Amino acid sequence: MRQRRFLPSIKLLLALDAVVRHGSVTAAATELNLTQSTVSRLILSLEEQLGRELFTRERRRLIPNAAAISYQRDIARALDMVQRASMSAVANSAGGTLSLAVLPTFATRWLGPQLGRFLTAHPGVALNMSTRYDRVDFATEAYDAAIYFGDGDWPRVNHLKLFDEQVTACVSPEFRQRHRLDTPQDLAALPMLQLETRPTAWADWFRGQGQEPVGAGGMLMDQFSMMIQAAISGLGIALLPDYLARIEIAENRLVPVFRQAVPTSGAYWLVWPDGNDQDTSLALFRDWLSQNASGASG
After folding, report:
1. With contact defined as beta carbons under 8 Å apart, do 121 and 288 qualify?
2. Residue in 195, 175, 166, 197 with CA at minimum distance from that of residue 257
3. Which residue segments constitute the domains of the chain, with CATH numbers given?
4. Phi, psi torsion values for 183, nearest 5 degrees
5. What is the structure's pLDDT at 277?
6. pTM of the predicted model, to two decimals?
7. Helix count (H) and strand count (E) of the chain?
8. What number is the average pLDDT over the span 179-190?
9. What is the predicted pLDDT for the residue at 93?
C-alpha cells in the first residue's frame, strides 16, 4: 500500500524541481506561471508533508540543501516517466506504444528510413524514439527497449543481435588525389578521424588489413554524422560502418581506400528489460527488426 505522506502532489514536486534547477524562486515562478509567493508556499507545504527541511531561507532566497538536490534528481526522472507515459497515452489511446532509445546516426541513417514499412504493417503501434549515447537505466527511465553498439555485455537485460559492424576507410576524392595512399601504413602521416565511442576502431581496421596498428592522430568526434562531413570536407580519413558509407560512396562524395568491409569487435543490439518479453508492441518490433537487420552489414 502506498503511503500518502510520501506521495506529494505533482504541483509540489514541480515547484521543487523548478527551484532546484534554476536556483531561483523567481525563475521557477516564471517557468510555472505562478507568483513567487505561491512557489514559496508550495515548497513549504512539501517540507511539511515530508517532515523535513529541504531549503535554507536567506532573505527571499531558497537555497537547496543536499537532501533537496538528491531528491530533485530522483523526482526529475519520475516526472520524465510520468510525462512520457502521458504523451504515449495521448498519442495512442488504444494502447500499443513503444518507447525506444537509439543511437543518433543509426536512427537517422538506418532505422528512420525503414520505419515507414513497420508502421504501415502495424498501424496500431505508436513508436516514440529518443537518441541516446549512453546506456539506459530501465529501472528509472521510461523506455521499453534500446538499440546500442557493443559486445552484448549489458547486464540484466534481454538481447537480440541485429548485425555485426563492418567498416570501410573513406576519403573525399580531392583528399585521395592530394595524398599518397599506396599501403595502409601511409595513413600514419595523415589525419585519421576518430569516434569517442570506438577507441579501438583504427587498431581493428589495421589488423583487418593484415598490418600492425599505428597511432591515430586525427580529430575526435562524438557522432558519425560529424565525421562524414569532416571527411567530405577533406579534413581526414573516416572509418565508417558500411551501412553509413554506402550513400556517400554511391554519390562519389567519398571514396573507399584499401580493403573494404573490415569487421570490428562490436555489434548492434536490441535490448529490453527482464519481464517485458510479452509486450505486444515490443514483440512486433523485435520480429520486424530481426527480419530487416539480417542484411544490413553486408
Report:
1. yes
2. 175
3. 4-89 (1.10.10.10), 96-158+268-292 (3.40.190.10), 164-265 (3.40.190.10)
4. -135, 160
5. 67
6. 0.66
7. 11, 11
8. 90
9. 46
